[in-house]
Amino acid sequence: MWLNKPYNASPSASGAFGHEVYHVIQADQSGSFLTEAIGLQAASTLTEYYFGEPFAFDPYSFDPSASILPQFLHGNVEAQGAIVQSMIADSAAHGYPRGKVSSQYQETYDEILRRCRECKKKKKY
Ligand SMILES: [Zn+2]
């Protein structure tokens, strides 16, 4: 599974790749992915245009110092992508072996694996 592959690229490149791969999974799991993603980009662009960057809506925001799983479960598609990106970059930066994440990401990692297994049952990949 993609989440268990070793990290051969830099932590930031590994994280960025994981972010985009997770969007593919989101798109596969939800028919409304594209609508939500476009809406978030529109909201971000419009609030930045009208209110300036400090007041712009940031669809990627989450608090890495707070509990991650609730933020993942309730986050929009970009916040979830940002969490996956941060989790993978963190694992790569620590040089963890495949499938190991820092403890603050463990519940989220388990939830992503659960979702992937659910998806795998329905489809064949
Ligand atoms: Zn994204």
Fold and architecture overview:
The protein has 125 residues and is an all-alpha fold. The chain has one domain. It contains five helices and no strands. α1 (11-29) runs antiparallel to α4. Bound molecules: zinc ion. Zinc ion binds at residues 19, 23, 78, 81.
Provide keyphrases for this structure:
binds zinc ion, 0% strand, 125 residues, globular, 5 helices, mainly alpha
> What general outline do the C-alpha atoms trace?
globular
| Broad structural category | mainly alpha
Helix segment tally: 5
Mean pLDDT: 90
Q: What molecules are bound to this protein?
A: zinc ion
Proportion in β-strands: under 5%
What's the main sheet like? none
Compact description:
The protein is an all-alpha fold and 125 residues long.
List the helices and strands and how they pair.
Elements: H1 11-29, H2 33-51, H3 68-74, H4 77-94, H5 106-122
Helix pairs in contact: 1-4
The chain binds zinc ion (ZN).
